[in-house]
Amino acid sequence: MENKYYLILDIGGTKTTGAVFTEEGSPVKDVFLTAPSVTYEGKDAVFRNTVEVGRRTLEQAGVDPAAIIGVGAAAPGPLDYRTGYIIDVPMMGWKDFPLGDLLQQEFGAPVRVDNDGNLGALAEQRVGVAKGENSVLYMTVSTGCGGGIVLGGRIYRGRSGGAGEFGHMSIDYNGIPCPCGSRGCLELYASGTAMNRRMRSDCEKKIPSSLFAGTGYDPDRINGALLGKAAKENDAYALEFFRQEGRYLGAGLANLFNLFDPDVIVLGGGVTKSAEFFKEEMLAEVNRRSCLPVARERIRFSELNDRVTLYGAYFLINDYLQEEGGAGRERKE
Ligand SMILES: [Zn+2]
User: Fold this and answer.
1) Which of 60, 198, 248, 330 has CA 20 to 30 A from 210's CA?
2) Is residue 122 part of a domain?
3) Do 69 and 194 belong together in one domain?
């Protein structure tokens, strides 16, 4: 019998990545093809670009498109995971956009679509640092803060698919207003975007730091990489900045431990690359605020890095086809 494969796509705000996975869950030839997402160029351009990434990925992996039995995709939300409809994502130009149906037409195979938070949780629970644990939460800290919940090995989505919005837990009742309608949402304090905003504001205030001095106090030149470098050089401002980041994240994580008492919470995303500078303060803050003590080993850092979402999308489509049984495996031409 011929080999069968899954096409896996991670459609992000800045880049789109493709991979081909075997039925058993290994990436073929270690091909992870990445291209810019051409956001703000209109709904069709963004979609054609996505398809192009898929086609080139198959080519590089040397896999015949006819051997694809399913497509797993990560896309920005809000989206309907049952239909693969994107509800409204302005940067993609996708409003009530039938992404799942269109991908199915292009690749002739069943499609499942979900957000990176849910897929991250699934990947970490299946093959990541929380492998085999029963209850796993995943929180990504990058441009924003996303999340996902896996209970008993399954994604917990809630009634409308909106569960796991960890970035919109309020950690300050009267805090900064958020586009979601609430105030003081975690991502307004702890995300990479929030960190940049705070650093630039401190730079304008001429707060003494080698981080700012190195740029001639030019707020436009401040970024996370320079902050990490300053912390490595023991700059007092940078070290305290990261401790504050740890306290913000710790406040959010304490809420999650109080609500779910999960086996493990996994943190991923670009900001966690600097975890060495904030993890102690974060754990301390969790334990200052949580009702029950939280042991160090219950907070882990993703080791799947950029591939976490791709692995999650593989498990998403694989689970779906396994559950649909033989019928779900038929190619639809
Ligand atoms: Zn919010």
Assistant:
1) 248
2) no
3) no
Identify the pLDDT of residue 1.
56
What's the confidence (pLDDT) of residue 328?
A: 46
* 317 falls within a domain: yes
The SS3 assignment for 39 reads: coil
Residues in the chain: 333
Residue span of the structural domain in which 171 resides: 129-303
Backbone angles phi, psi at 226, to 5 degrees: -65, -35
Residue with token string 């974060």? 282
Per-residue burial over 80-113, b = 16 or more CB atoms within 10 Å of its CB, e = otherwise: bbeebbbeebeebbbeebebbebbbebbebbbbb
Q: pLDDT tens for residues 219-243? A: 999 999 999 999 999 999 999 999 9
Together in a domain, 149 and 298: yes
Q: Which pLDDT belongs to residue 331?
A: 46
Average pLDDT, integer, range 272-284: 97
Cα 49 to middle of ligand 1, angstroms: 30
50, part of any domain? yes
Q: Does one domain contain both 285 and 319?
A: no
Cα of 166 to ligand 1 centre, how many Å? 9
Same domain (yes/no): 19, 100: yes
Q: Average pLDDT of the chain?
A: 95
The enclosing domain of 65 has a CATH number of 3.30.420.40
CA of 167 to the centre of ligand 1 (A): 7
Cβ 9 vs Cβ 72: under 8 Å: yes
Q: What pLDDT is recorded for position 332?
A: 44
Cα of 194 vs centre of ligand 1, distance in Å, is 13
More confident residue, 143 or 150: 150
As a whole number, mean pLDDT of residues 241-264 equals: 98
Measured on CA atoms in the order 316, 2, 58, 31, is the torsion positive or negative?
positive
Is the domain of 141 the same as that of 187? yes
Confidence (pLDDT) at 315: 98
Say how many domains are in the chain.
2
Residue 331 Cα to ligand 1 middle (Å) = 41
88 and 224, same domain (yes or no): no
168: CA distance to ligand 1 center in Å? 4
* Cα of 182 from ligand 1 centre, angstroms: 5
